[in-house]
Amino acid sequence: MEKRYIVLDIEKLPEGYYVATSRDVQGLVVEAKTFEETVEIAEDVAQKLLQAQKGNVPPRTVITYPLMIPA
Known about the structure:
Helices cover 27% and strands 17% of the residues. The chain has 71 residues and is α+β, with helices and mostly antiparallel strands. It has a domain at 9-53. The mean pLDDT is 87.
């Protein structure tokens, strides 16, 4: 089975829920009550989205570059 590395951005909302998105998987948005549940659901959704998009979405090159600026 082919494996792919993706990065999740997970934010805790003021209401207590967690929301996960990813720049690596187009359309990935997941919300759950716990951090662990969010990651688990995001993994399943990412797999399904990537399978559905296979061959239809051109690969992206994203460079993550940390930049420190004066506040």
